Amino acid sequence: MDYIYSVEEARDKILGLLIESTGWKYLKSRNCLRKTVKDLVFEINFFGSKWNQSHQSVEMNADFRMIYKKYGSVPVNNIVASVQYLPEKGKQGDGYWFDISTEKKLLDVYKDLNNRIQATAVQLALDFESDFIGATERLFNDHFEDYNVHLDFVADILGTDAIKEKAKDIYDNLSDEYKRQVSDYKNGDRSKPWMINRSNLKYIADNGFGG
Q: Where in the chain are the domains?
C-alpha cells in the first residue's frame, strides 16, 4: 500500500512545488500565494477539507482571485475576477476536492493544478504587469465568463462605454424572475443577496443599463 501523507506533509509538499513554479510570495497566515501589480492583487487561495485526517485522507482545492485595492479590503467588495480550481470528477478527486493523500496522487494533482494556475493567474498577472489597459480589454473581451469579471472594474479602467453592450446583453438574457427582482430593487427592495453585495446585476440596476 502506498504511504499516505499527514495533512501537514501533503500541504507543505504541494505548496512548496507551487511556490517554486509561480515565484509568488506565500502568506502563511492566509494560506495563499500572492503577487501585487500596481493596484491589483493576484491571489491563489488554498483550502483543506474538514474531513482531512493524517495518514488516512488528505484533500484540498484552490481558487484564484484578482483583487482591486481601490475597492477596499473586504473580499465581498474588492474581488474583480475569479476562477475556482476543481478536479475532474473520478480522476483526481470527487469533483470538488483534489485527492493529495499519496505521492503519486499529489504529483498528478500538482501537474494539472500548476498548468491551470500558469494559464490563468500567472499569465494574467504578467499581462497586467506589461500592459494594464490592454490586459483589461482582453480580460473583458475574451474571458468575461471564464473569470467571472466584474463590470464596474472594467468600466473604471476602460470607461462605461466599453461595457454598455455587455451590460444590456446580460439584462436582456435575464429570466423574468430576475427582471422582476431588478424592478423591485429599483423600488427599494433589498431582500436578495445581489441587491446588497457588489455584483454585476446590482451595477446594471444602479446604472440604468436595463429595465
A: 7-130, 139-206
Residue 84: helix, strand or coil by DSSP?
Answer: strand
Residue type, 179: K
26: phi then psi, degrees, rounded to nearest 5: -95, 125
Length in residues, the chain: 211
Q: Helix count (H) and strand count (E) of the chain?
A: 10, 6
Q: How far apart are CA 89 and CA 169, in angstroms?
A: 33
Give pLDDT tens digits for 120-150.
999 999 999 999 999 999 999 999 999 999 9
Q: How far apart are alpha carbons 11 and 26 in whole angstroms?
A: 13
Dihedral angle of Cα 194, 200, 205, 206, to the nearest 10 degrees? 100
Pairing of strands 32-37, 40-48: antiparallel
Distances in Å between the Cα of 50 and the Cα atoms of 7, 102, 196 are: 11, 18, 30
Q: Are 197 and 152 in contact (CB under 8 A)?
A: no
- What pLDDT does 88 receive? 79
The model's pTM is 0.92
Share above pLDDT 90 across residues of the chain, in percent, rounded to a whole number: 91
